[in-house]
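Page 37, continued from 36.
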């Protein structure tokens, strides 16, 4: 059943309770993401602890998924250029470097950076980087690789 749930992308927490389990079964279940593998007889408290842990993990997963979804909705409002700027900023480039990479003025980059920060609700550069990392962790193609340095910035 655990395998079928995984195939259906159903990430409901799973707790195994069995009277005939062995170490291999327990290891397989745990590697596949089971919360707990309880072998009978077990204490009621063990089951309650496993259920509590499953609820906590599921709540945390849902909160993270909601944050990612909310950020994806905000990023969808960005222009393609703002997405590029976001990727460069998240990669640690300064406005001057971004301007060089994009072939625009530094002022233009500042305006685009300000606009994208407002659209996604970033209150600071670290907040912007955190939001970009959240999306990168969600396998979103928002960020670009770090570009080569401008000729004048080497060495």
């Amino acid at each position: 059943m655990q395998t079928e749930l995984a195939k259906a992308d159903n990430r409901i927490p799973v707790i195994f309770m069995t009277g005939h389990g062995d170490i291999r079964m327990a290891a397989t279940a745990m590697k596949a993401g089971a919360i707990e593998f309880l072998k009978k007889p077990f204490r009621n408290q063990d089951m309650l602890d496993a259920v509590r842990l499953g609820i906590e993990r599921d709540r945390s997963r849902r909160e993270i998924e909601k944050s990612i979804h909310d950020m994806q909705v905000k990023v969808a409002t960005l222009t393609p250029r703002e997405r590029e700027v976001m990727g460069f900023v998240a990669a640690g480039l300064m406005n001057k470097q971004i301007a060089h990479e994009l072939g625009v003025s530094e002022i233009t980059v500042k305006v685009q950076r300000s606009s994208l920060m407002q659209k996604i609700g970033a209150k600071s550069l670290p907040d912007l980087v955190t939001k970009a990392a959240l999306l990168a962790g969600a396998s979103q193609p928002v960020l670009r690789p770090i570009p080569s340095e401008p000729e004048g910035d080497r060495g």
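Residues 2-65 form a domain with the Rossmann fold fold (CATH 3.40.50.2300). Flag for discussion at group meeting. The two ends are 59 Å apart (CA to CA).
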